[in-house]
Amino acid sequence: MFDKKIIVILFLGAGLFLTSFIPSQPSKDNKVDDAFSSKHSENVLNGMVVLELFTSQGCSSCPPADELLKVVKNKYPENTFVLSYHVDYWNYIGWADPFSNKDFTEKQSRYNKKFGYSGNYTPELVVNGKEHLVGSNNMKVINAIDKYSGIKSQNELSVQQLNRSTNKIDFDYKIDGDTVGKNVRAVLLLKERITEIKRGENRQRTLVNTNIVIGEKYLKINDGRVVGSINIPSLAINNEELVLMLLVENNDADITGGVKAAI
């Protein structure tokens, strides 16, 4: 009969042996930007990458996508255009997202109809108006950035005039490239907001949202120029830094060019 001490030693040794073959799990404390490998961080972005995130403060799976969007914005400030569209279909859970808008839900539905996808979901990320993916999937987002950064934009915009007053922003931009069958989407964004969530799926969490869409309108292109204005809604605090984006779209909602400015 084996000595009890020997049995215990054999058992512990076997456990350590098996443990050595179990792959280690990444720490949950790792930052989102750790997903961006050193190889990727050395890439140079040439083409424009527009990332439209459909999200909600009432959705428990959305905060990782919100965080990833902020990482992308900070990592590639020149060539990535990130936008947060807050939808309204999560509001019934118990927390009414202050940035939600039924028009954004309808916008998401139009995109998904285009993609042949049934229904809406969050967090959904639309890339250059051409495809969609789960907005919290780090590798898919990285691959999308790599893909579209290598495609030269069809249209380039240059500012002729840009002025901000108390209630609106006036602008005048020249557009180079073919503009037949295209128009311009003017989008106004809050640079960032921090919100303490009191109820719903994200209750007792502090959420950071970046580039929150608070205004949008479509404008026609005339003689290679787009001239217009966009109102500043009451959601914006006096003198709060805003971001204006102008995105050129074709009739199929593919984005072919863009420009952005902090104002």
Secondary structure category: alpha+beta
Q: Could you name the CATH homologous superfamily of the largest domain?
A: Glutaredoxin
Domain tally: 2
Distance between the termini: 82 Å
Q: How would you sum up the global shape?
A: globular
Describe the structure concisely.
The chain folds into two domains: 35-149, Glutaredoxin (3-Layer(aba) Sandwich); 156-187 and 215-262, Immunoglobulin-like (Sandwich), CATH 2.60.40. Helix content is 22%, strand content 36%. The protein contains five helices and eleven strands.
Description of the molecule:
- The longest helix is centred in the first third of the chain and has 16 residues, at 4-19.
- This protein has helices at 4-19, 38-41, 63-75, 102-115, 138-149, and strands spanning 49-55, 80-86, 124-127, 131-134, 156-164, 168-176, 182-196, 206-220, 225-231, 242-250, 255-262.
- 35% of the residues are buried.
- The chain contains 5 helices and 11 strands.
- A hairpin with a 3-residue loop joins strand 5 (156-164) and strand 6.
- It starts with a helix and ends with a strand.
- The chain has 2 domains: 35-149, 3-Layer(aba) Sandwich (Glutaredoxin), CATH 3.40.30; 156-187 and 215-262, Immunoglobulin-like.
- Residues 1-31 and 37-44 have low confidence and may be disordered.
- It is globular, with a radius of gyration of 23 Å.
- The protein has 263 residues and is of the alpha+beta class.
- It has a 4-stranded mixed beta sheet, with helices on both faces. Strands 8-7-10-11 form a 4-stranded antiparallel beta sheet, covered by helices on one side. The protein has a 3-stranded antiparallel beta sheet with strand order 5-6-9, with no helix packed on it.
